[in-house]
Amino acid sequence: DGLALRGSYYKTTVPVRKGVILFGLEYGSDRWAARQYTEKLVAAGFDIFAFEPRNMGESDKDPAYEPLQWVTDKDVSDMKSALQYLKNRPDADEKGVGLFGVSKGGSTGYVVASTDPTVRCVATDGAYATYTTVVPYMQRWVKIYSDRKLLQRIVPTWFYGLVGITGLNRVARERGVNYPSVEKAIARLKRPLLMIHGEGDVYIKPEMAKALFDRAAEPKEFWLVPKAKHNQAIAVAEAEYHARVVAFFEKHLTVPANPQTAST
Q1: 167 pLDDT band (50/70/90 cuts)?
Q2: Sign of CA dihedral 50, 84, 220, 181
Q3: Structure pTM?
C-alpha cells in the first residue's frame, strides 16, 4: 500500500544457522518486545525477524486505518510483506521459515501461514479468533443484561454466531476493512502447531483457545500454563517456556520440508 514497515533482523552467532523465524507482535507493541520471547531461539541457532505492522512502532501510519485487537486484512497484508522480505533476502533459507506470534500476531500468523507453504510450522502464545471469542462473550452479556432465563437456555449457539457475524460485517464496512476467518485459517493450516495459553487468561479464556485449537490438524500441541494471565506465560514459566519453544522449532524447522506438506 505504499507504506514503509520497520523491522529488526536478529542473526544467530552459532556457526551453522538452524532456521529463520518470523515473529508476529501483540497489539500495541513494537519490534523490540520480541527480544524477551526470542533471545533463546537466537542463542540456539535461529535467525529472527520482528516487524512492526502499519500504525505500530516506527512503521508508517495509515490515516485510513485504526488498528484494534481484531485481525484485519491490513494486518494480514503487512505480515505477508514481512514474509516476502524474508524470501527475498540474499541469505533466505530454502527450507522455508517458522512463525512465532503472540496474541494478535499469532492470530494473524494463522491466516498468513494457512495459504503460504513457505511457513513450515507455527507457534503462538495467547492467540484468538473471532467467532470462538465473540459468541461466548455475547452469551455472557445476555445473561448479565437479560432476566429471561428460559430464553437464554433455548437460544442456540448458531443464532449468536449469526448475529455476531452480521455485526462484524457492518463494522467492517464502516471501518473499511475485512475480518478474515481465523477459524477457517487454522483448519487449513495443516502444519505443526504449538499453541501456548494462560490458564488465568480472563480476556481469552482457556476454553475459547481450546475451541480454536480443536479445529487444527495434527501434529499439534496445546500447553496451558497454570496461573498465567494473557500473554504472561513467559513470566510465569520462563525456563520451560523457552525450552518448549526452542524444542518445537528444532524439531519441525531444522529438517527438510516434506513435499506433501509444502504443497498444501
Answers
A1: confident
A2: positive
A3: 0.88
